[in-house]
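Students often ask why inverse folding is considered easier than folding. One informal answer: many sequences map to the same fold, so there is more than one right answer. In these notes we will look at a single instance of the problem. The structure comes first.
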């Protein structure tokens, strides 16, 4: 039985889970685009840039405070090493404690050193945004427990409600009440609070919600999570370092333009993100042989679809930005184009990184992320002063392509699978497409 046949035997479940997760990602894409359009149109390039910088701070702090404990919850929950009760109690205590510590540390840094890149932001907005860090950690830790239960519908519902709240509260703050940046910051706090509450409700029917702490559980979670944490933290910096460096070298309007370009290019992350989520939840429950059979097929087909999607973005980006954001945001088009090749390459990393985490090796691709970050920093320092936001886009794309390639090399060496098998579709893939189309047609006829 060849790889395609083995994969097709488990195809219905994988396809169903990926399809529903992708639908969720599409909803997130649409709702995120609506929120971004509202913010851009009502606040303008400068206001959009300032708000992007404000919400970036708690995102960085939450990423720093995660310590890999979220993905560890998924792994240990899926392998049933610890009970849901143990994971939930520990997660509540960890989120509150770690969130408070990193928030306090950052605010001390902010008020003592008064960093230049935040000088355009009012202090009260920084304080309010930082209050969401524990809320973010609650949501991340607990939603990863839901994912570890393989309750993908519940996991996706958390994202659906969170992003619905984001659009509604953004529209209320800017369109209905015209509250400006200040109103958006308060709306941001309410959005994060909504995320935490809905996650608690999703768990409440399966476990008694209580605070608790078991050092042995924490130690093992940290031991697993820290291996992937460094890579995830470094990768997050790869995603957002360019915005921080633009804030240092350029003005708030440039941040606004570039944030729109990033949002457009990261549309390509939604399919690999959906696939990666299912792969992460699926891999701990299957054999190494099954993973080796299916992963190359999943990776190369995700890459091809991402490439086709990038071509559509390349063609329609200019008109889309003009219609959705207005002519004043047209400077975002060129950096968006420049980001596309890197965004396609990152689909490889997103699939293979989650696959290796599912095998119990979450830190395996950290070398790829570290190398990419090093190149990203050097190129941003060289190119932003000379080329502005286009320079930042070039730096990021080069880093992303390097990350994707190194991830392929590392994955191949650790699994013995050929790199080309993860990149190039073959005749078997075409036969698989034909088989799937035939199956869908038969189902439609029966319906």
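Output (designed amino acids):
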């Amino acid at each position: 039985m060849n790889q395609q046949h083995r994969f097709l035997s488990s195809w219905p479940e994988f396809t169903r889970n990926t399809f529903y997760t992708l639908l969720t990602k599409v909803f997130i894409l649409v709702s995120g685009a609506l929120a971004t359009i509202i913010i851009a149109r009502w606040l303008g390039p400068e206001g959009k840039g300032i708000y992007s910088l404000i919400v970036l701070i708690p995102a960085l702090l939450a990423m720093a405070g995660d310590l890999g404990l979220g993905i560890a919850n998924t792994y240990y929950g899926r392998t049933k090493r610890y009970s849901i009760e143990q994971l939930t109690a520990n997660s509540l205590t960890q989120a509150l404690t770690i969130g408070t510590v990193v928030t306090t540390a950052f605010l001390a840094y902010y008020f003592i050193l008064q960093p230049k890149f935040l000088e355009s932001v009012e202090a009260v907005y920084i304080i309010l945004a930082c209050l969401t860090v524990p809320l973010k950690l609650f949501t991340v830790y607990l939603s990863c427990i839901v994912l570890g239960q393989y309750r993908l519908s519940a996991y996706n519902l958390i994202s659906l409600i969170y992003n619905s709240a984001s659009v509604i509260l953004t529209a209320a703050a800017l369109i209905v009440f015209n509250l400006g940046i200040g109103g958006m910051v308060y709306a941001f706090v309410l959005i994060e609070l909504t995320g935490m509450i809905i996650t608690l409700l999703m768990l409440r029917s399966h476990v008694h919600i209580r605070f608790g702490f078991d050092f042995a559980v924490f130690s093992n979670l940290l031991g697993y999570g820290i291996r992937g944490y460094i890579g995830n933290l470094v990768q997050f910096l790869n995603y957002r370092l360019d915005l921080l460096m633009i804030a240092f070298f350029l003005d708030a309007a440039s941040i606004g333009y570039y944030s729109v370009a990033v949002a457009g290019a990261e549309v390509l992350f939604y399919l690999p993100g959906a696939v990666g989520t299912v792969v992460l939840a699926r891999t701990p429950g299957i054999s190494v042989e099954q993973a080796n059979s299916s992963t190359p097929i999943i990776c190369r087909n995700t890459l091809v679809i991402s490439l086709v999607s990038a071509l559509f973005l390349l063609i329609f980006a200019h008109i889309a930005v003009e219609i959705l954001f207005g002519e004043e945001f047209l400077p975002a088009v060129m950096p968006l184009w420049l980001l596309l090749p890197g965004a396609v390459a990152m689909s490889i990393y997103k699939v293979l990184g989650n696959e290796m985490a599912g095998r119990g090796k979450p830190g395996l691709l950290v070398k790829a992320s570290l190398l990419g970050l090093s190149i990203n920093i050097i190129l941003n320092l060289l190119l932003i002063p000379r080329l502005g936001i286009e320079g930042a886009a070039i730096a990021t794309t080069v880093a992303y392509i390097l990350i994707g390639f190194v991830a392929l090399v590392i994955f191949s060496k650790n699994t013995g699978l050929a790199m080309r098998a993860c990149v190039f579709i073959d005749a078997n893939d075409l036969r698989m497409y034909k088989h799937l189309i035939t199956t869908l047609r038969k189902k439609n006829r029966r319906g």
